[in-house]
Amino acid sequence: MSEPLYDLVVTGATALTGAPASQTIENAVIAVSQGRFARVEAARPGEAPPPALKTLHLPGRVVTPGLVNVHTHANLSLVRGVAEDLGFAPAYTPGIPQGHMVTPEEAYAIARLGALEALLFGSTLINDTFVHADIVTPAMADIGLRVWSCGRIHDVDFSGVSVGRWDYVDAIGERTLAEAIELAERYDGKSNGRIGVQLAAHAPDTCSTPFLRRIARAAEETGLRVTTHLSQSKIEVARIRERDGKSPPELLDELGLLNDRLTAAHCIHVSDTDIARIGRAGIHVAHIAKGNATGATIAPTHKLRAAGARLALGTDNMHADMVEVMRWALAVGRIQLGAVTPDWQPETVFEMATMAGARAMGLQDEIGSIEIGKRADFVAFDFRQPHLTPAINPLGNLVHVAQGRDVEIVAVDGELMVENGRPTKVDADAIRREAAVAIEALWKRARGN
């Protein structure tokens, strides 16, 4: 019986599959059929590559699963190089462009820039929240990657937050929640399953307690997962303590939101009691290793993991390089311990960036590893470079030395979205120009020009 004609075959590369049974395969053969991995194994001596419509021979490259970024805000590239040095998240910082200032046209242009950056750096899925999600969701998906998106759900009037005014308005909450549910009805599961929605409750302090309860009911009624910021700042913790007499994790637990269908970004300012509560709930923690460290904070990742929390990775604001985030996660984890330990190694953070991210998205059976039957999302890094030579331990090189800029190929469902480091579906230069114009206009308005 003759072998089937595959849609795509990759040969010659070293594969870091992310699968426990076959973590590393040298001189791998990876075959794709109908958007899924159909063959994953080491090449057999003397055997010709299997027949395919397209064959990529990639010696000197390292192929990994697509990286899964469980928490980002593509539009916030607009404040990169500035907000990192202000000490607060952009929504809480006066004097810089705020989400409520962004027009639909500007959101479209800037989100495409953020999605393109993520794709070029090897992310095949981003979980994005910001504004004008009805417009930016399909716009980002058109770049070629998987996009889970939602407008930020809140009932606070954000125009006052950056100057310390906390006004909760029922109409704002009803509008933002209705828009999120409508977005899910319109887009969830569309584009061959490449678009999804999680309910993005912005944060405990930007949602009133009754509104958080309403979001919990909506999640139960719709079956949608929830994403939020949790214990991200001392301001949030103090605000919830004053308003509710509880810590943010205690509040979410009481309201039914602290569970294994929640992805919570940061979890920095947590007590031992909070950590135990988070662990019992089995939530997914979006560890923002670089962004937190830039702001002079570190999440207690070892305590969280030991308690039962599930750690995944996100880039959050201002950049989209998940390879860099793996490196920061490894480093800040070791700094906390004051030692290099067997249970906090490159494979630890690689798993956070791949399979753990897939679990947080509820997609562990579909993506996150290179295994037969899973969707063929993969990335090829070009290791034929001085800074990646020698490759005695390819995974060690990837985490310690590589950059997103070393990505040569990105495939989603076996379709090549990036070749030779350039996108195949869009004009990168045009996207950059259009975003630059939009960002300049926003900064002028923010400065009152």
Description:
There is one protein chain. By secondary structure, this protein is an alpha/beta fold. The chain has 2 domains: 6-65 and 371-423, Urease, subunit C, domain 1, CATH 2.30.40.10; 67-360, Metal-dependent hydrolases (TIM Barrel), CATH 3.20.20. Helix content is 37%, strand content 21%. It contains 16 helices and 20 strands. The protein has helices spanning 104-120, 133-141, 158-161, 170-187, 190-193, 209-222, 234-244, 248-255, 272-281, 289-294, 301-307, 322-337, 346-353, 355-360, 394-400, 428-446; strands at 6-11, 14-16, 24-25, 28-33, 36-42, 52-57, 61-65, 67-72, 123-130, 146-151, 195-196, 199-201, 226-230, 262-266, 284-287, 310-313, 378-382, 407-412, 415-419, 422-423. It is globular and about 70 Å long. 55% of the residues are buried.
- Beta strands, count: 20
What name does the CATH topology of the largest domain carry? TIM Barrel
Strand-residue fraction?
15-25%
Using the 3D structure, state the CATH architecture of the largest domain.
Alpha-Beta Barrel
The CATH C-level class name of the largest domain: Alpha Beta
The rough form would be described as globular
Pfam families: Amidohydro_1
Domain Amidohydrolase-related: 62-416
Organism: Ancylobacter aquaticus
Keywords: Hydrolase
Question: Which structural traits does this protein have?
Answer:
449 residues, Urease, subunit C, domain 1, TIM Barrel, 2 domains, seven-stranded mixed β-sheet, five-stranded parallel β-sheet, globular, 5-methylthioadenosine/S-adenosylhomocysteine deaminase
